[in-house]
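Support case: user asked for a sample of complex input and structure output to validate their parser. Sending the pair below.
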Amino acid sequence: MGASDCIYCTCVQLPCHSYFALANGGRTPNVPALFRGLFKAFIPQASPTNAITVACMTVKKKWTVVPAFLALAAAATLLSAYSGASSSQGLRVEQPIKFVHAPHMQKAGMNCLYCHNTANNAPDPGMPAVSTCVGCHNGQILPGKPEIKKLAEYAKNGLPIPWNRVHKVPDYVHFPHMRHVNVGVTCQSCHGEIQNQGPAPDSANYLPVMQAQSLNMGWCVRCHVNGYQPAEGARLAGQKVTPELEAMPAKKARYDCSSCHY
Ligand code: HEC
Ligand code: HEC
Ligand code: HEC
Ligand code: HEC
Ligand code: HEC
């Protein structure tokens, strides 16, 4: 593999990149536990949490380990191909209340930040408090519906709604929402057309929120390298795609290991 083949970072001569290039091929490395164990034994400084970032630096000084490392990498690639990529794309999770996004966008005209109100100033977008819901659902809007009755019950008892998490990256990955939201990457670029989620809860066609993207490393890095397309993001968000948007250059981002792993 030549220096220019590696899209991940500038320390191209490192064997860990051979692993990624081999394993990736546009797809995420799904490092099997066995490989991680061997990796750790092989390069003691590397922990599964700071993963290969540390190892990269260490390996630089240990050229003797390269051939063995490459053999390991090849084995790991086969293993990971065999076990299949672990991706939660398409995941849907049952919720304590069958919430629907569509009427809130389409009938109430709400903005995503009304409920996920830290998405533009914190790593975590935040979830709405019951009091946010009750601001509207205070007996006027569909009070007889079963899901609204459940909501009223939580409010009456002063309990938070125990929403189940859908989207999750591993703890060793750093994902800051605000960095994306503040450069104009639309929520829908990563979460799909969520404004259309939801035939009514009592419909036979009701479906919970779906994880639209794999959220794996290959997916993140591809956008950082190729750049975010503002027109495409606007189209997914149901916004008007103006000629100005079409003409905007793709927004690229850092893709060195330490931007996402530290
Ligand atoms: C009325 C408040 C409200 C608004 C407005 C709202 N959401 Fe949500 N959102 C919720 C609630 C409540 C949940 C948790 C229940 C569920 O998953 O259906 C949720 C869940 C989600 C999830 C899944 C969270 C997870 O666990 O991974 C995503 C992604 C999301 N919303 C994105 C958006 C986007 C994008 C918009 C704007 C188009 C938006 N939301 C507007 C209330 C809201
Ligand atoms: C800005 C006002 C507003 C807020 C805040 C709001 N809703 Fe709604 N909600 C609506 C409107 C409007 C509808 C659609 C009513 C209709 O279809 O006639 C709706 C519909 C619903 C439905 C569908 C009910 C059914 O059976 O069709 C559910 C469930 C729901 N809301 C739950 C919530 C929850 C949970 C929250 C807080 C996370 C919340 N809402 C916050 C205005 C709001
Ligand atoms: C660049 C991709 C990207 C964009 C843009 C994005 N998200 Fe996310 N979102 C993610 C990822 C990745 C996760 C999982 C993060 C984690 O596990 O720390 C996530 C998680 C969430 C969750 C669940 C968080 C929780 O604590 O339960 C919600 C809600 C959410 N996003 C809403 C939004 C909203 C609203 C917007 C727009 C204002 C948005 N996201 C923009 C990628 C994105
Ligand atoms: C749809 C395109 C897109 C996707 C997908 C995406 N990002 Fe980004 N990301 C961006 C853009 C654009 C920026 C640049 C922000 C800036 O210039 O300030 C960025 C910035 C970042 C930053 C801040 C980098 C810095 O300069 O310090 C981190 C960290 C990050 N992204 C992590 C992730 C992770 C982790 C994922 C996958 C779970 C991901 N991103 C998926 C477009 C994307
Ligand atoms: C734009 C963000 C981003 C960048 C840059 C990035 N990663 Fe990742 N990485 C992720 C995400 C998200 C995951 C978790 C999902 C997955 O396994 O694909 C991950 C997973 C991994 C894993 C899997 C760990 C395990 O236990 O399975 C390793 C190892 C790893 N990254 C190493 C690296 C190395 C080495 C680099 C630099 C060459 C790098 N990453 C650059 C986002 C990134």
